[in-house]
Design brief:
The protein is of the alpha+beta class. Helices cover 36% and strands 25% of the residues. The protein has 2 domains: 1-29; 31-155, no CATH class. Strands 1, 2, 3, 4, 5 and 6 form a 6-stranded antiparallel β-sheet that branches.
Length: 160
């Protein structure tokens, strides 16, 4: 009789635990959105010209993060030409330190149609996305892919 009671108790606790986990991952999880804000910024070549910069922000439960997650901008090449580059702001460290920020921009990754496919980036995952990533090793990052695709289309790199 004690063995059946223990088994029933363990099964009951397991069901409650799984139910709580499902609720925590689903309805109680914060909602994630992304937004792209475009700005005219001075070009990094020392001239007084400007170019468009795309800043990608995460929004959690309708609250936009203070700093962008990615900044996509035109980085100068040695020959006076430019290429699109992407900076993960988390790589900067202290975003209020202008020198660190400018130095990080010099080492930003090339931004093209292959950048997001290369998986050399970091994202913020929801609880469900984290669980899927742990269990299946795959990512379903539709929101990030959509935003990157919009930027690629905007700068004309999507079909090249």
């Amino acid at each position: 009789m004690k063995k059946n009671f223990k088994k029933k108790t363990l099964v009951g606790l397991a069901i409650i635990g799984v139910s709580v986990l499902i609720i925590w991952i689903g309805p109680l999880a914060p909602s994630k959105e992304l937004v792209v804000i475009t700005k005219q910024m001075p070009k990094l070549d020392g001239s007084e010209r400007t170019s468009i910069t795309y800043s990608v922000y995460y929004i959690w439960d309708d609250m936009q993060e203070e700093h962008p997650w990615w900044v996509i901008f035109q980085a100068p090449l040695g020959d006076g030409d430019f290429e699109w580059a992407v900076l993960e702001v988390a790589d900067v460290g202290d975003v209020y330190d202008t020198d660190k920020f400018m130095k990080a921009m010099q080492f930003a990754s090339k931004f093209d149609k292959n950048w997001f496919k290369s998986e050399m980036y970091r994202v913020q995952r929801t609880r469900l996305e984290k669980l899927q990533h742990i269990l299946f090793g795959s990512d379903a990052l539709e929101k990030e892919e959509e935003v990157i695709g919009q930027i690629l289309n905007s700068i004309g790199l999507a079909k090249k």
